[in-house]
Write a structure and sequence with these properties.
With about 475 residues, the chain is mostly helical. It is about 75% helix and about 0% strand. It has a domain of about 70 residues. It contains 24 helices and no strands. GO terms for molecular function: antiporter activity.
Length: about 475
């Protein structure tokens, strides 16, 4: 019992990760070994440095990259001594493949967002919001509601990045509003993704495993709404009831801006189609979508001169000196420059935690905790704990562990674990991919401790959503 409790507490200290190592051979049990304890210690120390990023001014990718190398070096040494290095290599390659899919997916999403920013779409959206006279409170609700309804289609990570880019443009230097708005976006994006098979990776996993059909996700809609509204209503009371301190100006979109938005929507549709129809990883569709942007960039470059001549002639005819000046600063669209503007610290941070927890999974800790939860606890309490674990550990390995255990549960409990795994990550900024990505996108303004202060309010929404699900869908628990 003492060992089980210590492993459970240690597991609570693990941030998000990829799926557990998938090996076809017997692994070496190392949960009570020197290597196992050393790996836990190294990762806990690295994780502490990540949480102290805003005070140490140390990029969060650095400690986890070092920890990943040390953990796998120790694993490699032990497996070499036992003559089973091929097992460790198989697990390593599996985790690398999982990270590669995540990296490329995020890279394409970030590239599109960077392209839309370069084409001044967010500047135009900011100008529109200012021209409409929206105050900070209205902006808080507008971005949150948009995040909630876009995430079931676009996925919670992409939606959060898009809304955060808008907030950063509109809010100016109001750090308090940026922090509250980012928390609101994370909650909304995670809640919106919980009732759709395409809104979150965990919902996709449950759907693909056949435990919940496409139409059977709909009972989660109202619990998801409650999960978002409860903390949003409380936080909105603390949003400054004032207008952004920005000067209203006319923003002219650069050529091709709207078409890039259309291509982004087409890219998301392509990714969904690859997964739903062909059963391929969505990243294949995302990379195909990057080709859409590359070809469009080629078209913009090839037709640049003709477009400039036409606009110059129009400006001369209208005697518009400002338009002529703007045309003189036009530069060709470059996709690879947009790629270089991706948030590489966040992408490398993903690598570090994926590989660290992949190593800890190979050591045996993930399976041990999963066994305790679903053999000794009531399924409802275990599913509620899954959501709490998802705030500290990523929901992907937690849900993967649940699916691997294949517990005998009612439809109500399968929907409950889908809900809690999806929205539980909102409790902490590091509990979901959306939160981690926004810490990078709003670096220094949306932080771990800034989110932590609002955890009790977010927990109210978490509890309320569970109660609503149990009351409204009680017949599904039979």
């Amino acid at each position: 019992m003492k060992l089980q409790w210590s492993v459970f507490v240690t597991f609570l200290l693990l941030p998000f990760s990829t799926l557990a190592a998938n090996t076809t051979h017997e692994t070496i049990p190392l949960t009570q070994s020197t290597v196992g304890y050393a790996s836990l210690l190294i990762f806990t120390a690295a994780y502490a440095l990540v949480m102290l990023e805003e005070y140490l001014k140390l990029r969060k990718s650095k400690p986890v990259l070092l920890a990943a190398g040390l953990i796998w070096a120790m694993i490699g040494y032990v497996y070499t001594q036992h003559g089973q290095i091929e097992i460790a290599k198989e697990a390593l390659e599996y985790n690398l493949l999982e990270y590669a899919e995540l990296l490329l997916f995020l890279l394409v999403a970030m590239t599109y967002i960077s392209a839309m920013e370069e084409r001044r779409l967010f500047d135009a959206l900011q100008a529109w919001m200012v021209s409409k006279g929206f105050n900070f409170r209205a902006l808080f609700w507008l971005t949150g509601i948009l995040a909630f309804f876009i995430s079931p289609i676009a996925d919670n990570l992409t939606t959060a990045l898009l809304m955060c880019a808008v907030i950063m443009k509109v809010a100016g230097d109001n750090q308090k509003f940026i922090n509250l708005a980012c928390i609101n976006i994370v909650i909304a994006a995670n809640a919106g993704g919980a009732f759709s098979p395409f809104g979150d990776i965990t919902t996709l996993m449950v759907w693909q495993a056949g435990h919940v059909s496409f139409s059977e996700f709909q009972p989660l809609f109202l619990p998801s709404v409650v999960n978002y509204l409860v903390p949003a209503l409380v936080m909105s009371l603390f949003v400054p009831n004032m207008k952004p301190n920005v000067v209203h100006q006319h923003v002219e979109l650069k050529r091709g801006a709207r078409r890039i938005v259309a291509l982004f929507i087409l890219t998301i549709a392509t990714a969904v189609a690859f997964h739903a129809v062909l059963h391929f990883p969505p990243v294949i569709g995302m990379m195909m979508g990057l080709a859409y942007l590359q070809f469009f960039g080629y078209f913009l470059r090839q037709t640049l001169q003709a477009s400039l001549h036409k606009k110059a002639a129009r400006a001369i005819a209208n005697r518009d000196d400002l338009a002529l000046k703007r045309l003189g600063s036009v530069v060709p669209f470059d996709v690879f420059r947009r790629v270089s503007h991706a948030e590489w610290d966040t992408l490398l941070f993903f690598y570090g935690v994926v590989m660290c927890v992949g190593g800890l999974s190979l050591l045996g800790y993930l399976g041990l905790v999963s066994e305790v939860m679903y053999t000794q606890w009531d399924p409802m309490w275990a599913n509620i704990m899954v959501g709490i674990l998802s705030a500290i550990v990523d929901n992907i390995p937690v849900m993967f562990a649940v699916l691997t255990m294949e517990p005998v549960m009612s439809m109500g409990n399968w929907l409950l674990v889908t809900l809690t795994a999806g929205v539980g990550g909102s409790l902490l900024s590091i509990g979901s991919a959306a939160g981690v990505a926004l810490m990078g996108a709003a670096h220094g303004k949306y932080t771990f401790f800034g989110h932590l202060k609002w955890m009790p309010v977010i927990a109210l929404g978490y509890i309320a959503s569970i109660l609503v699900h149990v009351m409204l869908n009680g017949n599904l628990f039979n």
